[in-house]
Amino acid sequence: MDYLVVRLSELPSRLADPALLSADERREAERRGEPYLLVRSLLRRELGRRLGQPPAQLRLRRNEHGKPELDAAPGEDIPLHFNISHSGELLCLAFAHSPIGVDIEKHRARPFDKLAKRFMGEAQLEAFRARGCPADLFFDCWCTMEALIKRDGLSLWQARRYPFTCEQGRIRLLQGEPPRCLRLFTPAPGYSGAVACDDS
């Protein structure tokens, strides 16, 4: 497992290359603009580098949950899994040989208690309130929750199926088999991040 964190404003515009994208991606880039084109171009370059293949020849699809992934022939394993997260000025691309989820969040004022009550399980909510609803704990919990559900291709509304505690930078899953890799990281000052996958 590895991940790449970049500041979008520092990426050279020459990286945005429509020739690397599929016809569907080019249509989406026309609709969503330059940032989408830049992110997809970078993603394809990184996948191509890791797989030793030309970026434009990679076939991507969406799985049954809508999560983007590399296409594989029926009966074949996906050669490399990836996940994308973007917040503020930062972009994170994560890669693994098993399904992976990553989330980064820029620290900013949010209705922390309201969001925690709506999306977090009892264990997270109890720990969060016991510590006085600190922003850093909220973002650590939020990123962990997002990384877990993105790994499994689920929606935010299914986040409570992963009861965990998040204390002093350590995550402990309270139910089920934890991923081999479930950890917090700091992508940049003022940001939180978490990644979940079964790579060792």
From TrEMBL:
<dbReference type="InterPro" id="IPR037143">
    <property type="entry name" value="4-PPantetheinyl_Trfase_dom_sf"/>
</dbReference>
<dbReference type="InterPro" id="IPR008278">
    <property type="entry name" value="4-PPantetheinyl_Trfase_dom"/>
</dbReference>
<dbReference type="InterPro" id="IPR055066">
    <property type="entry name" value="AASDHPPT_N"/>
</dbReference>
<dbReference type="Pfam" id="PF01648">
    <property type="entry name" value="ACPS"/>
</dbReference>
<dbReference type="GO" id="GO:0008897">
    <property type="term" value="F:holo-[acyl-carrier-protein] synthase activity"/>
</dbReference>
<protein>
    <submittedName>
        <fullName>4'-phosphopantetheinyl transferase superfamily protein</fullName>
    </submittedName>
</protein>
<dbReference type="GO" id="GO:0000287">
    <property type="term" value="F:magnesium ion binding"/>
</dbReference>
<keyword id="KW-0808">Transferase</keyword>
<dbReference type="GO" id="GO:0005829">
    <property type="term" value="C:cytosol"/>
</dbReference>
<feature type="domain" description="4'-phosphopantetheinyl transferase">
    <location>
        <begin position="99"/>
        <end position="157"/>
    </location>
</feature>
<feature type="domain" description="4'-phosphopantetheinyl transferase N-terminal">
    <location>
        <begin position="37"/>
        <end position="94"/>
    </location>
</feature>
<dbReference type="GO" id="GO:0019878">
    <property type="term" value="P:lysine biosynthetic process via aminoadipic acid"/>
</dbReference>
<comment type="similarity">
    <text>Belongs to the P-Pant transferase superfamily. Gsp/Sfp/HetI/AcpT family.</text>
</comment>
<dbReference type="Pfam" id="PF22624">
    <property type="entry name" value="AASDHPPT_N"/>
</dbReference>
<dbReference type="InterPro" id="IPR050559">
    <property type="entry name" value="P-Pant_transferase_sf"/>
</dbReference>
